[in-house]
Amino acid sequence: MNAVLFRDSQVRVMEDTVTNAEKYFGQFCSLLAAYTRKTARLRDKADQLVKQLIGFANTENPEMRATMRSFAEDLAKVQDYRQAEVERLETKVINPLKLYGVQIKQTRAEIKKFKHVRKNEIKQLEKLEKLRQKSPSDRHMISQAETSVQRASVDASRTTHQLEEAVDAFQKQKLKDLQKIFLDFVTIEMIFHAKAVEVYSSAFQALENYDLDRDLEDFRVKMRGVYEHSDARLLTDTFPSQAVPWSFAGQGTQSTTRSRGTEEESVDDSAGEDPVEDLGGRGPGLHQ
């Protein structure tokens, strides 16, 4: 009976090992999968930001346009690294954790098999004890019962040994895999962040070197150009062309009226030909 109790304590240790692995590996897998999904969503949001930066750059003056485009390119490059990070996490971290579901089921099956054998051993021991109490003189039945107990004990010992080897192998593989999985996780993160820092350093320099004064100067020149053009038009409307020379003053009123009408049409046509981009302060070169 002492052997049975010893095997029971062994099995409890083995069951606890498998139960803890099942619990925590499942949580690791779930949390790291969520971590990877959030990383992928962050990549998607950054891609949207890149598109907006490019769209904004196309509306700005040359210096800001070049700076924003450079920044957008660097940010897009970081998202390429983030995509590689997501793929590596799925391959080297999440998939190996998923495989532990199968290994845990196999180890549990071994434990279940041992429990069945142990149950049979306990049953044979109880049967023997009852025979000894009820029929202590029936040596034949007692001998048969003792033989059954011995077979059950041998079977239990063999199964226990097999289970020990199975759980020992499971524990060894679990520790090695856990070490490798988290080493891979840290390596993947280090590679991503190292490359990201390198690219962000370049982006920082580009943003820091942005020439604000040059853009402001360019903007003010365009603004003055618009104002000067507007002033010129205003002067033309206020002081129209001089009347016909005195020598032609004797011509009929109808001729003079037609001449003024022609001049006014000329002014109106000239106003209609002003380019739209000049009125908006943006030259065609802005989108180049």
Secondary structure elements and their pairing?
Elements: H1 2-57, H2 62-134, H3 139-208, H4 212-238, H5 253-272, H6 276-280
Characterise the protein shown here.
- This protein is an all-alpha fold and 288 residues long.
- The protein contains 6 helices and no strands.
- The protein has helices at residues 2-57, 62-134, 139-208, 212-238, 253-272, 276-280.
- The longest helix is centred in the middle third of the chain and has 73 residues, at 62-134.
- The protein is rod-shaped and about 125 Å long.
- The model is unreliable at 243-288 (pLDDT under 50).
Helical segment count: 6
Mean pLDDT: 78
Outline, from the CA principal axes? rod-shaped
Low-pLDDT residue spans:
243-288
> What is the N-to-C succession of helices and strands?
HHHHHH
Strand composition percent? under 5%
Give me the oligomer status.
Answer: single chain
Please provide the count of β strands.
0
Class by alpha and beta content? mainly alpha
Q: What portion of residues is helical? A: over 70%
N- to C-terminal separation?
91 Å
Rg value: 45 Å
Biggest pleated-sheet summary:
none
Short overview:
With 288 residues, this protein is mainly alpha-helical. It has helices at 2-57, 62-134, 139-208, 212-238, 253-272, 276-280.
Descriptive tags:
288 residues, mainly alpha, 87% helix, disordered C terminus
